[in-house]
Amino acid sequence: MEASAVRDTTGAGVLTEVGDATFDRQVRTGAGPVLVEFFATWCGNCRRFAPTLQQVAAEYADRVPVVTVNADENPELVRRYGISSTPTLVLVEGGEPIGTLVGAQPAQAVRDLLDPVLAQSAGAAAASPAPSGSWVPADACTLPTEEQPLRVAEFDALFATALRRLERREPGWLRLVLAGDPDVEASARELIARESTCCSFFDFQLTPAGEELQLDVRVPDTRVDVLDGITRQAHAAGSRS
């Protein structure tokens, strides 16, 4: 059985498989915790655990990215994290392990691994909010320096008034689900048009979806840190609304 078939039993597409060559870029450089599953294609417990991992990954899609590592094909990562059996979950932040769970555990056990770390991160963020304009890429933004915080404030206002939920299933992709109000759509289209002219690496797509609007934001691998900042800002604004 192919690894992709084992890891994506629901078709939800919320898991990303990484390896020795891509792990550091997609996991170690992230702004928050990442849940890493070490699996093997021959492992019966891994196959049994796959639907549970998909379920938890979907639940935490906008808070904790979930990636998988084929233990047989990536010996460097197996050695780095001391993996001796599969499946093993390692919660990683800044490249360092901060929690481990071994075996085909129930979904609640995985939640119990994630929730304390998320609560601690939320408390730290509330105590030390990111400075206005912190996600603006100084080496790519053509806005005058004094105007950059104003642009961030415009995004903040949009998130605070219209954001319903967000999804972050890939490091370089973010979906913001907004209220499907004509005024919100007009404001969003104007804002992303202006942002696209000063930061050309952004790829925005605004799509009506029933009574909601879906704003997809994509960035290249070299600008994932910018998307991390927007995600944090959207979370903070949404929690204040």
UniProtKB/TrEMBL annotation:
Residues 1-119 form the Thioredoxin domain. InterPro entries: Thioredoxin-like_sf, Thioredoxin_domain. Keywords: Redox-active center. GO terms for cellular component: cytosol. The keyword Nucleotide-binding does not apply. The keyword Amino-acid biosynthesis does not apply. SUPFAM superfamilies: Thioredoxin-like. Signal peptide: none annotated. PANTHER family: GEO12009P1. This is Thioredoxin fold domain-containing protein. It comes from Pseudonocardia broussonetiae.
